[in-house]
Design goal:
The structure holds two protein chains of two kinds.
Chain A lengths: L1 H21 L7 E10 L4 E10 L4 E8 L6 E7 L2 E2 L3 E12 L3 E11 L5 E15 L5 E16 L3 E10 L3 E4 L2 E4 L5 E10 L2 E11 L3 E9 L8 E9 L2 H9 L12 E13 L2 E16 L4 E13 L4 E7 L1 E4 L2 E3 L2 E8 L2 E4 L3 E5 L2 E11 L7 E12 H8 L7 E12 L2 E5 L1 E6 L2 E11 L7 E12 H7 L8 E12 L2 E11 L8 E3 H10 L17 E14 L2 E5 L10 E6 L6 E4 L3 E3 H9 L7 E4 L2
Antiparallel strand pairs in A: 1-2, 2-3, 3-4, 4-6, 5-6, 6-7, 7-8, 8-9, 9-10, 9-11, 10-13, 11-12, 13-14, 14-15, 15-16, 16-17, 17-18, 18-19, 19-20, 19-21, 20-23, 21-22, 23-24, 24-26, 25-26, 26-27, 27-28, 28-29, 28-30, 29-31, 30-31, 31-32, 32-33, 33-34, 34-36, 35-36, 36-37, 36-38, 37-40, 38-39, ...
Chain B lengths: L1 H12 L6 H23 L11 H16 L10 H20 L1 H5 L9 H23 L2 E3 L5 E3 L10 H25 L6 H14 L6 E3 L5 E3 L1
Antiparallel strand pairs in B: 1-2, 3-4
Helix pairs in contact in B: 1-2, 1-4, 3-6, 3-8, 6-7, 7-8
Classes of the chains: A mainly beta, B mainly alpha.
């Protein structure tokens, strides 16, 4: 009940006004009044000096003390005060507060006998200079020019206001705007009927960004909670809009650093701080989300969302990038309602020379902790050579195809239903128990179990600048954990496919290379009688690595006959070649470096019977 | 008993400083281990209480801080008192090792070598190039809660406020993850708070002079 108290104060001043107005009748030339103090609820006016002259010139000046951190100096003057009703044609209000800035306004005021009034603002220059103690709100030499009018006919209040910035900086956490570079112009028309304040028209335009139009109604006593607004924004330059308004709001989220280019249009219907419908129309938009490694070009379409009804969205793009994988043009259509969305029809997204065919994609609980996603897709054959080139890996030959039966996202963790299977190197790769923890957080982690079955070693070794091995390979990699795509823990076991009857041969160079990777001597086989053999038959191959804490504990098929080595390649027939490893604890980074540049010295031995 | 007497000696001989709590905990821990060993000899049922290894945590924190801030940034306070205490602790460990080798093997040594920790450390180390100028200028300070904070938000130039806010938010996200990961890596997720507290003290202790740090009451002081 603050307003009545204010009124009480105004009424206390009224006798003074009456005295001034009545003064001409008494043929006075000049009146001067000094009031030490006027108290209001929450404010105090001190050292008030008022003066009136016979020609209608009136002036009041004082020091206002209120909740503000510094004193305000207020000066109100009227060059021509007329007693018809109560009118002033040349009203001037000047105020300044060291902690907030200054105001200089010129206009006119008129008070009708019927109780209506009119206030005309011909020109106001406002300079804002403020820095709140918590640093969340600041203005640095922010200059505004205002014109407007307020009218009250006894029942309704109508207000027109135009404001334009003329330079300066503003910070409203988390947004920072340099109005010198991107000036803002606002045009508003308001009307108050009874309790509600109607926004007849509000248009704001920021140069180099875009414009926004709002209409609707709100409750002035609780405008943040009780309102109904229709918003229409045309963003001409999405790049600067993203820099100014999207990036600051997305700090320390997965979308951090979001960049846009192009244009878009947004419409929204809000009621009581709840969006009812939101629609975005994209025109040749480019999108980049660095943290997720996503970029899409030539985005066109309509994204629609509604709380109550199903809204259909379409989106197409001309190309893009997912991590290091180039994406081809694709078109998506989905339906959204409330916190859920689902793909309307299967979609094909070209990926290299193949594609990802999405059969099912449904997301629910968007925006909440219970975010859930379901995803099923098929991978149409992708040339491995292209895939490897994209990742900067050695160019394996073969194709990759597979099936993703279902992928679920919940509790900041992505989990795969069943297994991801891929056909590659003439065999099968099966990725089970795949989980990604905290995929969009500070520390994304991947865990998986991988099974390799009947991989063609000729195709596998052909990809490397490595000797040639024929035969088939199985593998079990359990407890694989990746951080930043680098393995940090696993129990890997690779071995010749049991029961496989295909020819098993290993070239002289492959033996050399295995020895080199193990840090052993090379070139032993190119000496003596061995140099007449290009390759050798083998019975089986086996390698085991238990990786933990940067150390790979290595093992082979079985312990070596002599010493405490382990057999990596067990030869067959004559001449029989066994490759024996001796290093049991190998630094993983060193091992990887040796794989990359085959050829070094160390402990490995080639036994010849 | 010989070992109990020794623990008491370590106690009275211990230098009273702000790390006395850690010392007490350690001594208690050793006593507990001795008791456990003794109990194991006499009874089949043994209860082993795992205490938070405050001293080990301090050492671990110092190593991480050195890595993140680079060695130049850490003029670690080393005085005669601490070396004396160090010698005392070493001999304590030596005697205990001889007395109860099995228990000594269980001496908690904080593991900070997990890949998660290494990764977070690298991220923070990279960010330090951006964070250091803010610490040097006093815009950002080291909080008493193990995180960094904008000391005087209003002092940051308007155009830089978002950048500062973003650096601080990302650094704190990494720090929170670091404390959690250390606890998890040592199989004691419930230690997270204590690890954060140890770090809070060590970040401040190792801060460069001129940086602003927060005391226990939350007030900022310049080192």
């Amino acid at each position: 009940m603050r307003a009545p108290a204010h009124h009480a104060q105004v009424y206390r001043i009224l006798p003074l006004l009456a005295l001034i107005l009545a003064a001409p009748a008494a043929a006075l030339e000049r009146i001067e009044v000094q009031i030490t103090r006027i108290d209001g609820s929450g404010w105090q006016l001190r050292d008030v000096r008022g003066h009136w002259q016979a020609h209608g010139r009136l002036g009041v000046a004082g020091r206002l003390e209120s909740g503000l951190p510094a004193r305000s100096f207020v000066e109100l003057s009227c060059a021509k005060l007329q007693a018809r009703g109560l009118a002033c044609d040349a009203l001037r209000l000047r105020a300044r507060n060291p902690a907030f800035g200054s105001l200089d306004a010129r206009g006119a005021a008129q008070l009708d006998a019927s109780g209506g009034w009119r206030l005309q603002l011909r020109r106001a220059d406002v300079t804002l200079q403020h820095n709140s103690a918590d640093g969340r709100l600041a203005a640095e030499n922010l200059r505004l020019g205002l014109t407007g009018e307020a009218r009250h006919d006894g029942k309704h209040l109508q207000l027109w206001l135009q404001a334009a910035t003329a330079g300066g900086l503003a910070y409203i956490e988390p947004y920072f705007v340099d109005f010198g570079a991107q000036p803002l112009h606002v045009d508003v028309e308001l009307r108050q009927d009874g309790g509600a304040l109607r926004i007849e028209h509000l248009a704001a335009r920021q140069t180099g960004v875009g414009s926004i139009a709002v209409r609707g109604a709100l409750d002035p006593a609780a405008w943040g909670r009780r309102h109904e607004l229709f918003i229409n924004a045309a963003i001409d330059d999405a790049a600067s809009a993203a820099t100014l308004y999207a990036q600051p709001a997305l700090t320390a989220t997965p979308l951090q650093g979001l960049a846009l280019a192009g244009a878009l249009e947004l419409t929204a219907h809000l009621r009581n701080a709840q969006p009812l419908t939101v629609e975005a129309r994209l025109r040749a938009l480019e999108l980049r989300i660095p943290r997720l490694g996503v970029s899409l070009d030539g985005l066109h379409g309509k994204l629609a969302w509604a709380t109550a009804t199903q809204a259909t969205s379409q989106l197409r793009w001309s190309g893009g990038q997912l991590g290091r994988l180039p994406l081809g043009p694709a078109q998506l259509q989905w339906r959204a309602a409330g916190a859920a969305l689902a793909l309307s029809a299967p979609t094909r997204i070209p990926l290299l020379d193949g594609s990802v065919d999405i059969d099912r994609l449904a997301v629910s609980g968007i925006g909440g902790a219970a975010l859930k996603a379901e995803f099923a897709a098929r991978l149409q054959p992708i040339d491995l050579r292209e895939l490897c080139r994209a990742f900067g890996w050695p160019a394996f030959s073969g194709t990759l195809s597979g099936h993703i039966p279902g992928l679920r996202l919940h509790d900041r963790r992505i989990e795969l239903d069943g297994a991801l299977t891929a056909d590659a190197f003439g065999g099968e790769i099966r990725i089970g128990a795949l989980g990604v923890t905290d995929p969009f957080g500070v520390l994304p982690r991947v865990s998986a179990d991988i099974q390799l079955r009947r991989l063609d070693l000729a195709a596998l070794t052909g990809a490397f600048d490595f000797g040639r091995i024929t035969g088939r390979l199985d593998g079990d990699i359990t407890g694989l954990r990746l951080i930043g795509w680098a393995p940090v823990a696993m129990d890997a076991h690779l071995y010749s496919t049991p029961g496989d009857r295909s020819p098993r041969r290993i070239s002289q160079r492959a033996i050399d290379d295995i020895a080199a990777v193990g840090g052993g001597p090379t070139g032993l086989l190119s000496r003596g009688v061995m140099r007449f053999f290009d390759d050798f038959a083998y019975r089986r191959i086996g390698w085991r690595c238990v990786l933990d804490d940067g150390i790979c504990r290595m093992d082979g098929i079985r312990p070596s006959d002599e010493g405490d080595g382990y057999v990596l390649v067990e030869g067959r027939g004559l001449p029989r070649i066994d490759v024996v490893g001796y290093s049991r604890r190998v630094s993983w980074p060193v091992f990887m470096a040796q794989l990359r540049s085959i050829g070094n010295a160390g402990a490995a031995r080639v036994d010849t019977p | 008993m010989v070992h109990r007497a020794f623990v008491a000696a370590a106690y009275t001989g211990g230098v009273v400083d702000r790390r006395d709590n850690a010392m007490t905990t350690l001594s208690l821990m050793r006593a507990a281990m001795l008791a456990a060993t003794a109990a194991a000899m006499s009874a089949a049922c043994v209860t082993i209480n795992v205490y938070f290894p405050a001293a080990a945590a301090e050492k671990a924190a110092d190593r991480i801080i050195d890595d993140v801030w680079g060695e130049r940034a850490s003029p670690a306070p080393s005085g005669e008192t601490s070396s004396l205490r160090g010698a005392l602790m070493r001999s304590t460990v030596g005697v205990l090792e001889w007395l109860v080798p099995a228990a000594e093997a269980a001496e908690p040594n904080l593991d900070i070598g997990s890949p998660e920790i290494t990764r977070l450390k690298t991220q923070m180390e990279r960010r330090f190039a951006d964070l250091k100028p803010l610490l040097d200028k006093g815009l950002v300070g080291l909080g008493n809660d193990g995180f960094v904070a904008v000391r005087d938000p209003a002092a940051v130039p308007l155009a830089e406020r978002n950048q500062v806010r973003s650096i601080v938010a990302n650094e704190n996200a990494d720090r929170a993850a670091l404390y959690r990961e250390i606890a998890v890596a040592n199989g004691q997720p419930q230690w997270e708070t204590q690890i954060r507290e140890v770090f809070a003290a060590r970040w401040i202790a190792k801060a460069q002079s001129g940086w602003w740090v927060q005391d226990a009451s939350g007030a900022w002081t310049q080192k």
